[in-house]
Each structure stands twice: as structure tokens, then as C-alpha cells.
Design goal:
Structural class: alpha/beta
Distance between the termini: 6 Å
Number of helices: 14
Oligomer: single chain
Radius of gyration: 22 Å
Strand order of the largest sheet: 22-23-1-24
Length: 423
């Protein structure tokens, strides 16, 4: 298994290009199942989860033509199986996103219950209830979701909890259903908006995207389209925090500040200076490497978009470990998303957990150690902590990082960090 070896203590300076968003690319790839005509995609990130999804789609019969880096075309005119087997989806929860498109276009699907990061319960019951409301017959047997529907019908669906993948799955299914589907308490994340924009280019009729009520009027079929995946706001946020912590000046290209309002507000509160235009964000900070008191602690509470994103919680916990004063970090989305705390404590962090809240007391410095990544964003937080720790930090099990960060050691290296991947 690969490891990252990081020598801490180097301020970051320079430019880095932000990749396409993993959480937008995965549902958009599944949207390729909705039409027999080609779907051309750009800005597709080179990530392990994307490779897993493409492997699954190829297994079903989708033809994949690769062009330049990040560009590919999907052709789903000859699908020969509507099954997503356990062996291909056990490491990725997003595989559930093939369920809605398969059911809508082909009338049946057999999809393994998914796996993925162990950050807490992410039940698929909201997906199932929504599809049942649209007329699907669904049962779960031997670890598989077995779904049938001669033709999905429009319905009014209220989701008890805000669910991003649930909103995406039902929106894709509704695109080919008979009649009008109204999704209430829908997710508003930028990745949901990006999927809707792709579907609209394919001929779908969708209104209200970006609000908590999405209305989809079904059409008989979707057609060919071209779409560029939106930039990854979480990757951008991670590099912003890295620059704020280490100090220096970093420019992010292919980044959109309006997707990061909550994150940027908190970084400014911590003392970082941030400027931006349409596709560039620049951050400048004294950073903890310049001496104590350079960063101020910031308390955060995660909540669905547009509030503070759960996928940035671990990174801000890393910032608070070396910031001035005490902060609280409250997690309201996933009940098991503090697994990075133990590993940060190995680096010397002063963190206490009480229920869904972590109390973080900033220290003057952290010390390098060997730590283990437990999930995707926890991995990123350990990288950030290692960048400011004294001495060498070894991060094991970085396959989690490869699921969501494109060539992270290369990008950090271009900013001056001393990062090496050991195979």
C-alpha cells in the first residue's frame, strides 16, 4: 500500500489548478445510462472513484472513448446487463446512482447495496421510497436491491432528510418518467446543480434546481450532449486551508469562490486574506510557521449547503489544532466523522470529543509521527497537519486520498511542500 512521507515546516507559494469535482463527476457519469446517444464530458478528474465508476459502466456495456486528459465520451447504445455486482461497488457508495437511470430507461435494475468510507450511516431507504412512490416494485434480497417498473410515473416526493445522492438518483429517474415529479426537501449542493445542468443539456426539463423544491417534467428520451464537470469546491477548500496554515501566497485556478462562501468566511475569520474573481481564488496568510498567534481559532458547525460543508470539517479541525485559542467543531451530518481525532492526537493535537462536538485547543506546534488515514477527508486533514508539524510524518493507507484528490503530492510539491509518495 502506498504511503505519503511529508517533511513539515515549509510555507506554500505558487499556483495550482483545481480539478473537476468527484461528487459531480460520479452522478454525471451515471447519467450516461439515460440515453443511447453519446455524452461527451470534460474536466473529469483522474481519481480512483471515477475509475471504479467507469469500470462498472463498462461492465454494463457502456463504450468509453478517452480523448485528452479529463475528456471522454460515453456511449450507452448497447447495454447488456442492468446489474451492479457487489465486487465492483463494495468500495464506493456512489454506485447506488446507477439505480435510478437503469430503472427509468430499462425498467429493471439489480444493484448491490454499496460500501465506501466508514464515516457513518448513509442509508439508501430514501432512494427506495422515492422510486416506490414513482411506481417501482423494489425488494432487497441477498444484499441486492432488485427493482422493476414497466414505466415510472411522476410523483410528489418529500425526503425526510436532505440527501445529495437521493436527490440525484430521483432527479435522473424522473427525467424519463411519465408526468411531473416534485422533489421536496431536495439537496441544494453545487454538485446537484451541475448534474441538473448536464441533464438539461441532454433534453431534460428541470426547474427549481439549487432550491429545496425541484420539479422534473419527464420526457420520452434524452439525447447527445457535451458538459464540463464543475470544479471541486472541496479540493479548493483543502488547498485554501493548507495555504492559510503554512503561510505564503497561493493562487487557485479553475476555482469558483461562490461555491465556497461558508469556507471563505471562516478562513477570513482565522486571519487569512482571500481575493477572488470568476475562476481564480488567491489566499495569503502569515501561517503558524511564522510564529504563535498567526492564526485564530474558528468554531464551525456542519450543515447541508449553503451552510458549512461536512467535507471540510476535518480540514478545519487541523487548522484549529495550531490556531490561537479554543474552538468547537460540531458535526451534524455523519455520526462517525471524528475518526481522524485519534490520529491527530498522535501528532500532538489537543482535542476532546463530547458526542458530536470536538473541543480543539490550539498548540504552538505539532510533531511528526506515523499516522493512518481512516477515510477520504480525514486523510486530507492529516496531510494538512503534517505540513506544519515538526519533522517527518508518514501517512499510511492513502488510497483514501486517491479516491478524492487528484495527484495531491504533485500539486503540493509544485507549491513547495516536501511530499513524497512511497510505493
Amino acid at each position: 500500500m502506498d504511503k505519503l512521507v511529508i517533511q513539515g515546516g515549509v510555507p506554500l507559494n505558487g499556483e495550482v489548478r483545481i480539478s473537476g469535482a468527484k461528487n459531480a463527476a460520479l452522478p454525471i457519469l451515471c447519467a450516461g445510462l439515460l440515453t443511447a446517444e453519446p455524452l461527451a464530458l470534460g474536466n473529469v478528474p483522474d481519481l480512483h472513484d471515477v475509475a471504479t465508476m467507469l469500470k462498472l459502466l463498462a461492465h454494463m456495456g457502456i463504450k468509453i472513448e478517452r480523448h485528452a486528459a479529463g475528456e471522454l465520451t460515453l456511449g450507452a447504445d448497447d447495454i447488456h446487463t442492468c446489474e451492479a455486482p457487489y465486487d465492483m461497488v463494495k468500495t464506493m457508495r456512489a454506485s447506488i446512482l446507477v439505480l435510478g437511470p437503469l430503472l427509468a430507461r430499462f425498467g429493471h435494475a439489480r444493484v448491490s447495496l454499496p460500501g465506501g468510507c466508514a464515516i457513518g450511516s448513509r442509508p439508501v431507504d430514501l432512494h427506495i421510497k422515492g422510486l416506490q412512490a414513482m411506481g417501482a416494485e423494489i425488494r432487497i434480497e441477498h444484499g441486492y436491491i432488485e427493482a422493476k417498473a414497466s414505466k415510472l410515473k411522476g410523483a410528489r416526493i418529500f425526503m425526510d432528510l436532505v440527501t445529495v445522492t437521493g436527490t440525484e438518483n430521483l432527479m435522473m429517474a424522473a427525467a424519463l418518467a411519465d408526468g411531473v415529479t416534485v422533489l421536496e426537501n431536495a439537496a441544494k449542493e453545487p454538485e446537484v446543480v451541475d448534474l441538473a445542468e448536464c441533464l438539461i443539456k441532454m433534453g431534460a426539463k428541470i426547474e427549481g434546481v439549487g432550491t429545496d423544491v425541484i420539479t422534473v417534467t419527464g420526457v420520452p428520451h434524452l439525447h447527445a450532449a457535451q458538459h464540463d464537470v464543475v470544479c471541486d469546491r472541496i479540493e479548493a477548500g483543502t488547498y485554501l486551508v493548507a495555504a492559510a496554515m503554512t503561510g505564503g501566497k497561493v493562487k487557485l485556478n479553475n476555482a469558483r469562490a461562490e461555491l465556497l462562501d461558508a469556507v471563505i468566511d471562516k478562513l477570513r475569520e482565522s486571519g487569512a486574506k482571500i481575493e477572488h474573481d470568476k475562476t481564480i481564488i488567491t489566499v495569503e496568510s502569515r501561517g503558524v510557521l511564522q510564529g504563535p498567534g498567526a492564526l485564530k481559532s474558528v468554531s464551525i458547525r456542519t450543515a447541508p449547503h449553503p451552510a458549512f460543508p461536512t467535507d471540510m470539517q476535518a480540514q478545519f479541525m487541523a487548522l484549529n489544532t495550531v490556531a490561537d485559542a479554543v474552538a468547537t467543531v460540531t458535526e451534524t451530518i455523519f455520526e462517525n466523522r471524528f475518526m481522524h481525532v485519534q490520529e491527530m492526537q498522535r501528532l500532538g493535537a489537543n482535542i476532546e470529543v463530547e458526542g458530536n462536538t470536538a473541543i480543539v485547543r490550539g498548540r504552538e506546534f505539532l510533531e511528526g509521527a506515523t499516522v493512518m488515514a481512516t477515510d477520504l477527508r480525514a486523510s486530507a486533514s492529516l496531510v494538512l497537519a503534517a505540513l506544519v508539524a515538526r519533522g517527518e510524518t508518514v501517512i499510511e493507507r492513502i488510497y483514501h486520498l486517491d479516491r478524492g484528490y487528484e495527484h495531491i503530492e504533485d500539486k503540493l510539491g509544485k507549491l513547495g511542500a516536501k511530499v513524497q509518495r512511497i510505493k
